Amino acid sequence: MLHQHLTQKQHLKILPQQIQLLNLFHLNTLELEQRIQQEIEENPLLEEVSLEDDISSEKYNRESLQDFKDYEEYAYDDVPDYKMEYENYFNSEKIPERALPETADFRQLLKEQFEFLDCTEDEMMLANHIIDSMNEHGLIEQQLIDIANDISFRCKRWIETEDLERVLVKIQDLEPAGIGARSIRECLLLQLKRMNCKRPDVKTAIRLLEVHFSELSSRNMDKIMHLLNIDEEEIKIVLKLIASLKMKPITILSGNLANLNIIPDFIISNEDDNMEVTLHRQRSSNLHINKSWIDRVNSTEQNMQIDKAARQYVRNKMNSAQWFISAIQQRESTMLNVMKAIVKLQYHYFLDGDIKLIKPMILKNVADIVGVDISTVSRITSNKYVATPFGTLLLKTLFTEGISNSEGQVISNRVIQTTIEEVIETEDKKRPFTDQQLVTILSNKGFSIARRTVAKYREILQIPVAQMRTLWA
Fold first, then answer.
1. Could you report the average pLDDT of every consecutive run of 10 residues in the chain (473 residues)?
2. Is residue 207 located within the same domain as residue 275?
3. Are residues 293 and 314 in the same domain?
4. Angle, nearest 10°, between helix axes 144-155 and 16-26?
5. Which of 170, 190, 271, 429 is the most exposed place for a label (fewest CB within 10 A)?
6. What is the CATH number of the domain that holds 435?
7. Does any domain span residue 89?
């Protein structure tokens, strides 16, 4: 016998427009430009009117009103010929001072190498996302599950972590050796496995990193020699081999323009201690709906000269264009509010640029000031840069946890990491400080932290243990 039951349930459903708006929040300046151009190509009602177009049209109208110049005016003007030669190529006020050399980014080179492999379109898409998620040293700092979630959100379909693992293995076979490593340990192993694994020192070094890496980190050499069944001379040979490897597959040389071609999303100017936050480029003011199409729609609706499907198509495109312009405006206003909240929390840091003035700040602090969700702040600050008087910064580096010092003040862990880095830079390279010695030094500076915390910060800074630093000296 069938029974019917009447129940009430609450469901939270995100509208497609809301998902598209969140996607716009996640885009940086270059990605937003591509998204706008794509929307303009797909929607005939959406057009872009730049300020230069208005200026050029005004200049043309002004010149058209001038009287006709005779031969005397043209023949005896004082304008040099070399200035007139480039008038059709560059604005006279924006002539480049020097040629910009073409530099190939290592990510683009990796993508070109991957194209020569036998792979599917899905693997190529996943490879592009993995390569783009690498830092400037060719290492992967994010967890694969986080990268899979980002790809799933962008592609609107679920991506398994196992699929990324298979693609990552292929990427790690590319040049240079160690590319795509998720840690220094994996970077060293990838380089060792490219060598002749039949060599005793290579074989022992691989076993040391794979099985006894914790003992190596704690510099327990006696235990390592016992576990590997080798003597002191052999362990020196193995450690010398590991010391000859690169800790970072990509080394950024001074003067390389590859890491300087960053278009910031925000610009902070400081005039008499008055911080002003602006967007690098405000795009909503340049986007408009084509007026001729609006007049055509209104006239056709009155005259009924086109069929119902065509009218519905035009209405949908008009609604889409209006929503897109509104979404860009909402994105820009939210970005400004978030950046102003960050400047308010880190005001003293933006005054001088001293990293020791960074205060502990998490996403929730900014979200409470702006009045938005934490996920919105995360998307706004993801992969975004800000241009300041003391350089261009990645916004994510400003978010840090806090630790109390001896005076009871909450200090950002970024300040402690910088202090550790400064102490290690000034140490005796032949007798480097151990983690316990670093604890004592930091305690004298007012930072009371445990040895394991020092070890964690040292690993975040990608600084090896004291024994390894001795070999690198």
1. 74 67 81 87 82 51 49 55 51 49 74 86 88 86 85 81 88 88 88 86 87 78 83 85 84 46 84 83 82 68 62 82 88 91 88 80 89 88 87 84 67 80 83 85 82 82 74 54
2. no
3. yes
4. 130
5. 271
6. 1.10.10.60
7. no
